[in-house]
Amino acid sequence: MSKDDKILKFPDGFLWGAATSHFQVEGHPKEIDGTLSDWSRWTKEEGRISDKSHADQACEFYFRFEEDLSLIKDLNLGAFRLSLNWPALLDEEGGGQLDREQVDYYKRVLSGLKENGVKTFVTLFHFCLPEALSRAGGWQNPATAEAFGRFSELVAKELDGLVDYWITINEPLAYVYQGFISGFWPPGKSHDYISAFTAMRNFLYGHSLAYDALKKFSSAPVSFTCHWRPFLPKNRFSPLDHMVRFYRDRIFNHLFPQAVDEGHLHFPQPLGLSREIRQLEGEIPGLKGKCDFLAINYYTRELSRFKMGWPIDIFGECSMENELAVSDMGWEIYPKGLYDLLVTETLPYQKNGDGTARPVVITENGYANLFPPEMADGDWSLSDEQRVSYLRLHLEQLYRAIKRGVDVRGYLYWSLLDNFEWAEGLSARFGLVRVSYPTQERLLRASARVYQEIARNNALQL
Ligand code: GCO
Question: pTM for the complete prediction?
Answer without folding.
Answer: 0.97
